[in-house]
Each structure stands twice: as structure tokens, then as C-alpha cells.
Amino acid sequence: MYLVTSDEMRCFDHDTIHRLGVPAIVLMDHAGRAIADRVRELRPDKVVVLCGKGMNGGDGWVAARWLRHAGIEVEVLTSCHPADLQGDAHTAQQMAERFGVPWKVYEPGSLHQALSGFDQGGRGRAVLIDALLGTGVSRPAEGLMAQMIEEANASSAYIVSADLPSGVDASTGEVPGPAVKAHETIAMAAEKLGTAVTPGAIHAGLVRVADLGIPVDPARVRASYVSPAAFGQRFGFRSAMTHKGTFGRVGIALGQMPGASRLASLAALRAGAGLVVVAGARAEASLFAPDVVVREGGDPAQLLQDVDAVIVGPGLGLLGREARTWLYDLVRAGVARGVIDAEALAAVAHAGQFDPVASEFVLTPHPKEAARMLGWDARQVQARRLEAARSIAARSQAVTLLKGHRTVIAHPDGRVRVNPTGSSALAVAGTGDVLAGVIGALIAQGLDAFDAASLGAWLHGRAGERAGEELTEVAVTASDVIARLPDAVRAYRAEVGASE
What we know:
- This is Bifunctional NAD(P)H-hydrate repair enzyme.
- InterPro entries: Carbohydrate_kinase_pred_CS, CARKD, Nnr, Rhodanese-like_dom, Ribokinase-like, YjeF_N_dom, YjeF_N_dom_sf.
- Belongs to the NnrD/CARKD family. Belongs to the NnrE/AIBP family.
- Its cofactor is K(+); Mg(2+).
- About 40% of the residues lie in helices and about 15% in strands.
- By secondary structure, the chain is an alpha/beta fold.
- The protein folds into two domains: about 1-220, YjeF N-terminal domain (Rossmann fold, 3-Layer(aba) Sandwich), CATH 3.40.50; about 230-500, UDP-N-acetylmuramoyl-L-alanine:D-glutamate ligase (3-Layer(aba) Sandwich), CATH 3.40.1190.
- It has a twelve-stranded mixed β-sheet, with helices on both faces. The chain has a seven-stranded parallel β-sheet with strand order 4-3-2-5-6-7-9.
- It is elongated and about 85 Å long.
């Protein structure tokens, strides 16, 4: 599914209105009716619509009219007097008023009053429609608008946001001030990138896309969710005429904590690598499964020259200070593809100083590691996840996967994918090593860095979901995630098969 920015959506709106000749008021009516139709499915006893002064507010007025038409008790609280509205928003308000929709200009406490008796489930179910701020607003909500948002969040009504939650940046997912915490969001024509990326995704709840008849041109969109359908049979399907060499060799540089390398090696095998080699000065075969080749006696740059993809970082420990030498020796030896994780990320960047690496490497920082690379703090990274991932990718010239809820995969050229799979079951030590192993295996099998990082995140997240379902999210270990990778491959095959 494609994810659009506010600028991209504005272009698609413009083309529909001016090139195709669909009047803007018709699109507004489609949007408002889509909201009303969904709210009707919730079987509310009372609906309160919060309307701003822009086009988003116009959608809210239309929704109120359609709900009134359906015989549902509805009331509008507006952030400004209707006489101050302009254009299609004013037209929508006039039609709603003529239809008998009651309205009031919002004052502090008026929302609580409108929901009185419904808010706490006394006389039935209340639904609140958030139509305050649209895609064109990126500044923090202030004054009366901020009060409306805060009062909405304090209510116990079920909240449905029109297009995106008010206060969330449509293009970045940043939440610079007060923002509505919706139970669900009705996205118009296409989901906005800001509701796919955390923290905006947390505020959006469940996102449903309403088809308004606005054509969205994929060639003009730079972001999307990770979807198995995009990869087809490039992974997960094998012909009879193959052998271990067909699926590549993964090399893992062993450091001082072999457990992390063990997890990465087993994950790479479960993700389809034909051969996995672990190498280091003190490598011990007894520490690894018999399926893994262990090479001892020299530095990894010498021992891993024959692999198709290398994983550097998991378990390096104090040897992390040597990662720079290992990494660039491997690149010079021709192993210019793989995964850079954990301590090895310091070989690429520290405190904002970057040393570009080969473009077919994937960097896999978690928020604290990303913060060290950029010279930020972890809270800044979490508040500006999209910007952080894109900045690291552009400055390192390597694909960057920023771990966390709604993992962001950024290409140096600005393209972005957001991974929809995963759960809190993955919040345990070692799952990052598992992810590195999966991505390394996909690179060895011939996927480019951007595709390998994207599909790797999807498989890893689905395996984590499956482990959480079986074991509870509290009791999952990294080894449990590896054990569920076959389930993730089956899920991938099922989705690809359903799309063809």
C-alpha cells in the first residue's frame, strides 16, 4: 500500500479537480459520506463532530449532514463561527445547517456537556468525529484548538479521525504538540505517511482508506508499506534444479560474545542461506550448531573473502573498536554487501560524523545507536523517526533500517518503506541479531539491500507475532523467534499466492 505526503496528496487532488474536472465539493461530499458510513457501522446513540475552519472541517460538516439524514443524533462543535468559513467548507456548513444539524462554537467544557450522559456509557454509545486539522497543517496546535484536542482525548467517546488525527504531521508522523488519540482514522484516497510512522501511527489507531475516486499515481509516491506481493517469487519458492550455492554464502564476523553470532547464524539458515560461515580469531566449533561452518585463526577480513554477504556487529563487544578495519578490509576484498549492526555501526558514524560505505550494505541501528550516529538523543530519534532514518541513509549512502515500532527502511535516494509487522514480543535481547541474520541471508540470495532490509523486517516481524501468539508476548526469547521463521515463510507464500 502506498503512503503519501501532504504535498503528494495535494497534487493528486489538484489533478482530479482541474484535469479530470471533478468539483472539489463532490470530493468533499464523498469524504464526508465515507466518514458517516463508517460511524453508522458503530451504531452510536450520539455523535459529536469537531470541525475546524479548513477543508478537513468541511468533511466533518458533510459527515454530520449524512448522519442527520440517517436519523442519528448529531451535533457539531466548531472552532470558529460559520461566518468565518470560506469556499467549499462554508458551502458544506450551510447545507448541514439547512438540513437541521445543530451546532455551537466551542468553548472550554462544551464537549463534555455535549457528551453528558453518553460519555461514560450512561445512555448509550457516543462517537466523536475529529475533523479539526487536515494535511495542510504542520505547526503545533495552540490556544482553542489545543483545548479541543485535549478535551477530546479526556473523553471516553470512541474517536474517529478524518484523514489523520489532528496534531499529527501528515508527512512525517511527528507530533509537535497536542494531538488527538483516535481509535481509528478514515484516510481519504490514500493513507498518509504520517499515520504509518511512529509516533503518528500510535495516534491514528486502525487506519481505513476511503476511495474517493482520486487517482493515485504510484510513480509519484516515494513511500509504501512493506508488502510480500512486491517481491513475488524472488523469495520463498524454489525449483528442483538448485543447490546450496544457488542461495549464497553468509559470513559472520565473530566477536567476544559468540551467543549473538550464534543467533544470527541460525536465523540466516532459517531464512534460506545456502551456507553460513562464522569466522574469528577465537572461534570454537562447539559453540555453534553443526549446520554452521566455523573458521578460526585469523581476522574475519581474511577468513570471509569467499562469502556473498557479510554480517558485522552482533556480539563484537570490545572488538567493536576493530570493526572499522574489518569492515573496510572486507569491502576492499570484494565483499561489499551485507549488514552492519550493533557495535560495528560506530565504524560508519559517531556524533554526526559519517564515513560512507558501499551502497549494498544495510545499517540496522536501534534508536540509541541511531542517536549516537547522528549526535542526537534517543528521544529526538523516537520523535523524528522518519527524519532520523533518512538522514543516516543519505549521509552514509547505505540503506538504513531504524528498528522499533513500525520499522522504517530508508534508501539513500529518499525512498522509504514502513514495516507493518511485529509486536512487543520482539522487545527482548537478541532479536536484533536474528534480524541481521535474516537480512544477510536475503542479500546472499540475490536481493538488493533495500529489498532485503524490507523483506527481512517483514519476516522477522511476522515470526515475532507468531511467537507472541503462541507463548505470550512476555515469554518470547530470540531463539523462539528463529523457531517461528518457517511460519513467517509460509505466511509470505500465502500472501504472494493470494496476490497472483
